[in-house]
Amino acid sequence: MTDTSATGHSGPDLLAGYAAGAVDEAAAWSVEAHLMACAACRSAIAGQVDAGRLARNRSVLLVRAAIGDDGLLARLLRRCGVPDHLVRLLAATPSLRRSWLLSVAGVLAVVTGEAALARYGWAEARVPRPPRQEFLVPFLLVAPLLALASVAAAFVPLFDPAHRVAVAAPFSGFRLLLVRTVCALAVAVVPVAGAAFAVPGPGWLPAAFLLPSLAVCGLALAAGTVMRPLAAAVAAGTLWALPVLALAGARLPLLIVQWHGQAVCAAVLLAAAAVVCLRHDRFELGWTR
Amino acid sequence: MTPDTRTAAIHVDGLSRWYGVTRALTDVDLAFGLGVTGLLGPNGAGKTTLLSVLATVAEPDTGRVSVFGLDPRDAAERVEIRRRLGYLPQELRYHRHFTVAGFLDYVAILKEITDRRTRAGEVARVLAATDMERLAGRRVRTLSGGMRQRLGIAQALLGEPELLILDEPTAGLDPEQRLRFRELLSDLPGDPVVLLSTHQADDIAAICPQVVVLLQGRVRFTGTPAELAAVAAGRVWAAAERDGRAHLSWRGGDGMWRAIGDRPPVGAQLVAPTVEDGYLLLSHAADGR
Fold first, then answer.
1. According to the model, what pLDDT value does residue B6 have?
2. How far is CA A245 from CA A139, A239, A241, B138, in A?
3. Is pLDDT of A118 > 80?
4. With an 8 Å Cβ cutoff, is A33 touching chain B?
5. Does ipTM come in above 0.90?
6. CA dist., res. A115 & res. B176, Å (int)
7. Domain assignments of chain A as residue spans, ordered by start
8. What tens digit of pLDDT does each residue of A9-64 get?
9. What is the SS3 assignment for B240?
10. Tens digit of each residue's pLDDT (9 = 90 or more) over B265-283
11. Which residues, 6 or more positions from A3, have their beta carbon under 8 angstroms from its beta carbon?
């Protein structure tokens, strides 16, 4: 509030501006919140604002209070300038909920711990075993799949209970998908990269997961333009798991994230981006013919 | 294309829809005008399929649909239809962690009401219309079935739609809530086109100037409730004893047997048919019994 008297009441200029509809939204919210609790200011403004408008504003304020808090991520995004309505859409994304993120962190903790134990052994923490790569296989397998799962949960209709309402609404399905998947991916990559720092692997490992994670998620979205979203996510996950397991069998699991693998992932990502751009209308669900 | 008049309302020509080898709709031809039209039929009659096609959620296999002169096959016109649409799907599911107001706010965004203040005002309006103001801050997961159904109706009302499609809106409502729903339909602003499906013949008689009976995917009747009741004129009897020759018979609360048939039971009196009698007779004929 920009004009509040020392007593805590809205100042006369602010009240007059509010009555004339000449204050910005934040100031109007502030005045209305104060009016709800302050009989003196309600009385002061009663002659300038009709009772119906005050009653409507009171209802609006109650609604705003009832909508509830969207959490830390939402507040952060708003501070970064993301429009409020886009932030609110994220509240319906399961992979941005605390329970999901805790599950991701739990899985990462397990595979990271397993890698550390396999690398150092239970009682030999100060005497590393000879360097081998096999202990990294579970982490290599799981990390991009966690990013994929987060993205899939953001766009597979199975995870949106009000999907039919969303389909029948005018909001662009593709735009909704972009908002949710980009945010879900960004949030999922953080714990994956963090866990990669903790894994006893090469120093470049955290950076090496970014491209494969993007490629697998991009592949799922591109495949989603030609098949059902859930099948697309499963197919993309399978196409990541098969080469990881094959290279693990050849005792060269790190090859998947070394420069050969990075090149393949970059090519897949570019191709997937092209497909998504060209076929984005396939994400406009419902009656599409 | 922008329609120049709302009187065109909705036209359905030769609509058919298959689910695998099951034909849900067969050559449906219908026209809907302003006001409330009730769709009556048993489970599996094609009501939900027809409404989801009109809501642009499901595609027909053959046939044409025109909504306010707009063709849902065209992407831009489909979005325009959705801007004018309020849709309550059958058995709508919810994001259970949302509050009531939060869910409505989310749907309002999907309906392109992006301004925060306007959105809150609209949510407040539909909460008042459905008598849910006191529930605004409740989590959806804590609501009873009837409350959730009212929430479903409330989300359909967002944006004052010109076309309101309600798939079994009175399912789960108690008698008082059903009466409130009838009041709500009577007080809708702007005289929209309302299509509602129901199993309740008394809902049809009470609120629908027009009724369509769908049986086995085909339109078996269109007309007024009085005309539907008249289908059974001269074939509804009240008797003290059960008559085995009647197509349908049941004992009423007064101990008298109500029989629908071509011949009067012994000692029976002809009684005035109801909408339910007409519907039951049509249903019996469609079953080939």
1. 44
2. 12, 10, 6, 48
3. no
4. no
5. no
6. 62
7. 1-68, 86-283
8. 667 777 777 777 777 777 777 777 777 777 777 777 777 777 777 777 778 888 88
9. coil
10. 888 888 999 999 999 999 8
11. A10, A11, A13, A14, A17, A27
The shortest C-alpha distance from A116 to chain B (Å) reads 37
Q: What is the 3-state secondary structure (H, E, C) of A229-241?
A: HHHHHHHHHHHHH
How far apart, in whole angstroms, are the C-alpha atoms of residue A191 and residue A187? 8
Local structure of B172: helix, strand or coil: coil
| CA A104 – CA A91 distance, rounded (Å) | 18
Tell me the CB-side half-sphere exposure of residue B124, using CA atoms within 13 A.
18
Q: Please count the other Cβ atoms lying within 10 Å of the Cβ belonging to residue B1.
A: 11
Q: Hey, how many other C-beta atoms are within 10 angstroms of the C-beta on B98?
A: 22
Rounded (5°) CA angle B220-B226-B229: 60
- How close are the terminal C-alpha atoms of chain A, in Å? 51
What token pair was written down for B100? 């009531």
The answer to whether residue A6 scores a pLDDT higher than 60 is: no
- CB of B58 within 8 A of CB of A287? yes
The nearest CA of chain A is from the CA of B110 a distance in Å of 5
The predicted pLDDT at position A287 comes to 66
Encode pLDDT of A246-259 as tens digits: 888 887 778 888 88
Read off the tokens for B63: 């046939």
Chain B residues whose CB is inside 8 A of the A63 CB are 101, 105, 120, 123-124, 127, 136
Q: How many Å lie between the alpha carbon of A143 and the closest alpha carbon of chain B?
A: 28
Note the pLDDT tens digit of each residue in B76-103. Answer: 999 999 999 999 999 888 988 899 999 9
B1 has a pLDDT exceeding 50: no
Give the gap in angstroms from C-alpha A146 to the nearest C-alpha of chain B: 22
B127–A63 CB contact, under 8 Å: yes
Q: Do A59 and B121 touch (CB under 8 A)?
A: yes
Task: State residue B116's pLDDT score.
Answer: 87
Interface of A with B in 165-224 (CB under 8 A): 165-171, 176
Q: What is the rounded distance in angstroms from the CA atom of residue B152 to the CA atom of residue B18?
A: 27
Q: Enter the pTM of the model.
A: 0.85
**Structural domains of chain B in order of their starting residue, each with its CATH number:** 1-84+161-225 (3.40.50.300), 94-154 (no CATH), 228-286 (no CATH)
Which tokens belong to A79? 């501070």
- Please name the residues between 214 and 273 in chain A that touch chain B, using a CB distance below 8 Å: none
The per-residue DSSP string of A20-40 comes to TT-S-HHHHHHHHHHHHH-HH
Partner-chain residue, chosen from A60, A89, A165, that has the shortest CB–CB distance to B121: A60
DSSP designation for B222: E
Percentage of residues in chain A having pLDDT higher than 90: 28
Contact A103, A76 (CB under 8 A): no
Backbone angles phi, psi at A204, to 5 degrees: -85, 0
Confidence of residue B122 (pLDDT cuts 50, 70, 90): very high
Place of tokens 């963090």: A194
Q: Is A286 on the interface with B (CB under 8 A)?
A: yes
Would you give the DSSP letter of residue A116?
H
Distance (Å, rounded) from C-alpha A36 to C-alpha B101?
19
Quick check: helix, strand or coil at residue B99?
A: strand
Q: Does A26 touch chain B (CB under 8 A)?
A: no
